[in-house]
From TrEMBL, chain A:
Matches recorded under Pfam families: E1_dh (PF00676)
UniProt organism field: Marinimicrococcus flavescens
GO molecular function: pyruvate dehydrogenase (acetyl-transferring) activity
Lineage: Bacteria, Pseudomonadati, Pseudomonadota, Alphaproteobacteria, Geminicoccales
Domain Dehydrogenase E1 component, residue spans: 14-309
Record keywords, A-Z: Oxidoreductase, Thiamine pyrophosphate
Cofactor section: thiamine diphosphate
Protein name as catalogued: Thiamine pyrophosphate-dependent dehydrogenase E1 component subunit alpha
TrEMBL record, chain B:
Pfam families: Transket_pyr, Transketolase_C
Transmembrane segments: none
A GO MF label: oxidoreductase activity
Family matches, as InterPro entries: THDP-binding (IPR029061), Transketo_C/PFOR_II (IPR009014), Transketolase-like_Pyr-bd (IPR005475), Transketolase_C (IPR033248)
Superkingdom per UniProt: Bacteria
Keywords: Oxidoreductase
Keyword Oxidoreductase (UniProt): yes
Origin organism lineage: Bacteria, Pseudomonadati, Pseudomonadota, Alphaproteobacteria, Geminicoccales
The species this protein was found in: Marinimicrococcus flavescens
Transketolase-like pyrimidine-binding domain boundaries: 4-189
Protein's recorded name: Alpha-ketoacid dehydrogenase subunit beta
Length: 321, 336
C-alpha cells in the first residue's frame, strides 16, 4: 500500500508524539511527580499508529492499562492526557481516571482499562452498534499477550464471529505480561486461536510501521465490508518496565539496548523513508523538535494546573440520581 | 519478638504453613515471576513482593505462576481444595473478583451446603483492597461487604502485621473458603510479630483499648485511624473503646453488643461505600439487639457513594480520616 506524503508525516508525528510523551512521563514518574500505576508504551508505537491511521472518529477502539499510545494515535488531546496523568481538573477525565482510564468517546477511544481483558467484550458491543446503526464503523480491541489468555477475550472472539461483527482483535505481544514471558503463558499460538474461531489471523513485526499499516488496512477493509472479525498478532517489545518502578530483573541485561539499537520503530521508519527519499531528514528533525517542545510545554502546564476540588468528588456518578 | 512489616508477616505465615503441611500450595499471577523469561527467576513475588522468596524454598511445583486467567485459576484453586489440596490463591486486586466471582460465590462458597455437608473446601484467596495508592476506580475498592454477604465464605481483614500473620495461619488451617483481605497501603507498616506460628481464631474481636464515652468499631486499616483518633480525643478527656472485629464473617456480635452497651454511643468506621457495607450491618445489629442501651444514634464514617477517584486531591477527600472519626465522636459526645 502506497502512503502519501501527508500520511507518512502523520504516521511519523503520531509515533514521535507517543515516544516523547512516554519518555517525559517516565522522567516525571522517576522524579516522584506522578502518582499511581503508570504503564508506558514506548517501543510499541508502530502498532497504535499503524492501525489508527486507518480509522476515523466513527470507529472505536478499546485499549489496555498501557493506553497512552492508543489514545494519542486515536486523536486524544495530548494536553488533556498529560493533565489527566497528573490528576488535574482540566484532565481529559477531570482527574478522576488517571493514566489507566484515559478515554475520549467523541474520538472513538473507549478507554484505557484497569482490567486485563476488559476491552474485547466492549468492542463487540461497539461493533454491534456500528452494524446496527449502519455507521460503517469498525471496532478494534487492543489486548496484550497476557490478556489474550483471559476468558473475556476468547469469548469475544466467538461472539464476534457468530454475530459476524466488524471487530478486530489486535494481540500486542511485547514478550511479557508483567514478569511472565508470553512464550510460556500462551498455550497454542495466536494464529491457531484465530483459526479455531474461524477468523483470518495475521502475524506481523510490530517494530515495522509499514508492515503493521498494511495488515491493518486489510483487516479493517474486510470488517468495513461486512466480512467479519479478524485477529492480528503483533510482535514487538516494550522499553520500560511493566509499570513504572519495575526493576525488570526478569529480562536479560542486554535485551533493551539491543532492541533500541536494532529494532526501534522510529529509527526503522526514518531509515526507510530517507533511503527511499520520501521525506527529508531536516523535516523529520523539525517534527521531533516541535513535538518535544509541545510535550514539554503541556507537561509544565499540567504541573502548574489546579487540582479538582471537593465539589468534584461526588459528581459524574450518575446522569441523574 | 521482632518488629516485622505486614508484608513480612504474611510471607512468614505462608512459609511456616507450607513447611508444616505439604498440601498447602500457592498460585497466582507472578507470585514467583520470571516464568519463561531469560532473567531472574522469582523476579517479582507478586506485584508488591509479598510472596518473594517462597518459590526458591518450595519450588515451582508448590508456587505456581498462572496466566492472566482468574476465572480458571481461582476456580482451579476451589476445585483443588475440594479434592485434597489446601491452595492459597492470590487474586491480585480484589477489584478483579469481577472476572472470577462465579467460581467463588456460586462454586466454592456453596459446595458444602449444596452437597449436603459432604464437601470440604479449604481454600484461601489472598487479595489486596483499599484506597490510598492513587490507583483509581478499578484498583482501590474494598468489596469485602460483597463477600461477607455470601453464606459459606469467611472474610478476614487484618489491621496490622501481628493480626495478618495470625489470621492468615488460621485461614490456611481453616476448612472453609476464606477471603483474606490485605490493605495495599499497609505492607510497610510494622508491628511486633512472634517468630513462631500462631493462629488467631475467627469471630473473636480484638478490643484495642477500653474507654467510657464512645465505642468505635472499625474494620481493617480503619482500626489504626480509629486508634489515632482515640489518642487525640484522650487529650480532651474523651475516652473511647476501639473494637477491631478482625473478621466480618463470622462477626463477633457479642463483643460489639457488649462494648456498645458499656458506652451507649457508637461510631462505626468502614472504608467501603456507605450502602450495604459493614457499617450498616453493625448499625442494624445495634438497632435490633441493643436499642435500649444506646444513648444516641449510631454514627457511620465511611467512603462516599462514588467510585474511588484517581486525583490525589480527590482521593484524600474520599478516604475516611482520623479527623473525620474524631469529629463524629465529638458530635456524639456533645449531643448527649
Ligand atoms: C483482570 C486483571 N488481572 C490482572 C491484572 C493485573 N495486571 C495488570 S497488567 C498485567 C499484565 C498484562 O499483560 P499483557 O496483557 O501482556 O499486557 P502488557 O502489560 O504486556 O502490555 C496484569 C497481570 C489486571 N489489571 N486485571
Amino acid at each position: 500500500m502506497q502512503l502519501s506524503r501527508d500520511e507518512l508525516v502523520r504516521a511519523y508525528r503520531t509515533m514521535r508524539t507517543i515516544r516523547a510523551f512516554e519518555d517525559r512521563v517516565h522522567e516525571e514518574f522517576s522524579a516522584g511527580n506522578i502518582p499511581g500505576f503508570v504503564h508506558l508504551y514506548a517501543g510499541e508505537e508502530a502498532s497504535a499508529a499503524g492501525f489508527c491511521l486507518h480509522l476515523e472518529d466513527r470507529d472505536n477502539i478499546a485499549s489496555t492499562h498501557r493506553g497512552h499510545g492508543h489514545s494519542i494515535a486515536k486523536g486524544c488531546d495530548v494536553r488533556g492526557m498529560m493533565h489527566e496523568i497528573f490528576g488535574r481538573k482540566e484532565g481529559l477525565c477531570g482527574g478522576k481516571g488517571g493514566s489507566m482510564h484515559i478515554a475520549d468517546l467523541e474520538k472513538g477511544m473507549m478507554g484505557a482499562n484497569g482490567i486485563v481483558g476488559g476491552g474485547p467484550p466492549l468492542i463487540c458491543g461497539a461493533a454491534l452498534s456500528a452494524k446496527y446503526l449502519k455507521t460503517g464503523g469498525v471496532a478494534i480491541a487492543f489486548v496484550g499477550d497476557g490478556a489474550s489468555n483471559q476468558g473475556t477475550t476468547l469469548e469475544s472472539y466467538n461472539l464476534a464471529k457468530v454475530w459476524n461483527l466488524p471487530a478486530i482483535f489486535v494481540v500486542e505481544d511485547n514478550g511479557y505480561a508483567e514478569s511472565t514471558a508470553s512464550a510460556w503463558s500462551v498455550g497454542g499460538s495466536q494464529l491457531d486461536r484465530a483459526k479455531g474461531f474461524g477468523m483470518p489471523g495475521h502475524q506481523v513485526d510490530g517494530h515495522d510501521f509499514f508492515a503493521v499499516h498494511e495488515v491493518a488496512g486489510e483487516v479493517i477493509a474486510r470488517a468495513r465490508a461486512g466480512e467479519g472479525p479478524s485477529l492480528v498478532h503483533v510482535k514487538f517489545s516494550r522499553y520500560y518496565g511493566h509499570f513504572e518502578g519495575d526493576a525488570m530483573t526478569y529480562r536479560a541485561s542486554d535485551e533493551i539496548p539491543r532492541l533500541r539499537k536494532d529494532r526501534d520503530c522510529l529509527e526503522l521508519f526514518r531509515k526507510r523513508v530517507l533511503e527511499a527519499a520520501l521525506l527529508e531528514e531536516s523535516e523529520l528533525d523539525g517534527i521531533d523538535e516541535e513535538i518535544n517542545s509541545h510535550v514539554a510545554q503541556v507537561t509544565d502546564e499540567a504541573k502548574a494546573a489546579p487540582m479538582p476540588t471537593e465539589r468534584d468528588l461526588l459528581t459524574d456518578v450518575y446522569m441523574r440520581y | 519478638m521482632a518488629r516485622k512489616s505486614y508484608r513480612q508477616a504474611i510471607n512468614e505465615a505462608l512459609r511456616q504453613e507450607m513447611e508444616r503441611d505439604s498440601r498447602v500450595i500457592l498460585m497466582g499471577e507472578d507470585v514467583a515471576g520470571g516464568m519463561g523469561a531469560e532473567g531472574e527467576d522469582d523476579a517479582w513475588g507478586g506485584p508488591l513482593g509479598v510472596t518473594k522468596g517462597l518459590m526458591p524454598i518450595f519450588g515451582r511445583e508448590r508456587v505456581l505462576d498462572t496466566p492472566i486467567t482468574e476465572s480458571a485459576f481461582i476456580g482451579a484453586a476451589a476445585g483443588a481444595a475440594a479434592t485434597g489440596l489446601r491452595p492459597v490463591a492470590e487474586l491480585m486486586f480484589v477489584d478483579f473478583m469481577g472476572v472470577c466471582f462465579d467460581q467463588i460465590f456460586n462454586q466454592a462458597a456453596k459446595f458444602r451446603y449444596m452437597f449436603g455437608g459432604k464437601a470440604v473446601t479449604p481454600l484461601v484467596i489472598r487479595t489486596m483492597y483499599g484506597a490510598g495508592f492513587r490507583a483509581a476506580s478499578q484498583h482501590s475498592q474494598c468489596l469485602y461487604p460483597l463477600f461477607t454477604h455470601i453464606p459459606g465464605l469467611k472474610v478476614a481483614l487484618p489491621s496490622n502485621a501481628y493480626e495478618a500473620k495470625g489470621l492468615l495461619i488460621q485461614a490456611i488451617r481453616d476448612d472453609d473458603p476464606v477471603i483474606f483481605f490485605e490493605h495495599k497501603a499497609m505492607y510497610d507498616e510494622e508491628a511486633e510479630v512472634p517468630d513462631e506460628a500462631y493462629a488467631i481464631p475467627f469471630g473473636e474481636a480484638n478490643v484495642t483499648r477500653e474507654g467510657e464515652d464512645v465505642t468505635i468499631i472499625a474494620f481493617g486499616r480503619m482500626v489504626n485511624l480509629a486508634n489515632e483518633a482515640a489518642d487525640r480525643l484522650a487529650k480532651d478527656k474523651i475516652s473511647c473503646t476501639v473494637v477491631d472485629p478482625r473478621t466480618t464473617s463470622p462477626l463477633d456480635t457479642e463483643t460489639i453488643l457488649e462494648t456498645a452497651a458499656e458506652t451507649g454511643r457508637v461510631v462505626v468506621v468502614d472504608e467501603a461505600h456507605p450502602r450495604c457495607n459493614m457499617a450498616t450491618d453493625v448499625a442494624a445489629l445495634l438497632v435490633q439487639e441493643a436499642f435500649g442501651d444506646l444513648k444516641a444514634p449510631v454514627r457511620m464514617v465511611t467512603g462516599p457513594h462514588a467510585p474511588v477517584p484517581f486525583s490525589p486531591a480527590l482521593e484524600d477527600l474520599y478516604i475516611p480520616s482520623a479527623a473525620r472519626i474524631e469529629a463524629a465522636v465529638r458530635e456524639l459526645v456533645a449531643g448527649s
